[in-house]
Amino acid sequence: MDIRIASQNARFGFAFVKMALVPELASSYFLPQLVGLGRAQEWCLTARMVEPDEALRAGLVTEVVAPDRLLERAVELGEMISQHAPAAVARVKAVLAANATNSDIPAVMRNENAQNAAARLEPDHKEAVAAFIEKRKPNFQR
What we know:
It is a single chain. The protein has 2 domains: 5-80, 2-enoyl-CoA Hydratase, Chain A, domain 1 (Alpha-Beta Complex); 83-133, no CATH class. It is built from 7 helices and 4 strands; from the N terminus they run E-E-H-H-E-H-E-H-H-H-H. The chain is flat and about 55 Å long. Strands 1-4 form a two-stranded parallel ribbon. Helices cover 56% and strands 7% of the residues. The longest helix has 16 residues, at 105-120. By secondary structure, the protein is mostly helical.
């Protein structure tokens, strides 16, 4: 999930251990990436319920909203993202996914540079530059 919004009524639990199981669906990878290994261990080993405010402080969610605002806020964020070139959104997601756990900084920078070099050749980049110069919203091809 790219952006995680929770309702004030949400509760999170990693109760696999209660069923004599281990975390699944790659949560043993993603959870420590989001909240740190120590907190992931505590949540998974105790199987206690996590309230939305704690999930926000820990980085499990990026925002907590009133229950009746949840869908509206998700749509707002989707609309904000949809204003950008689809190829650029895909590239940002790809570069973040590839580089987030890579400690080889020169390799991270090579990946970013390669993605930007390819992006500069696309019509969306040219349109973005022209729109910036002309002080208008870009009209990206969808």
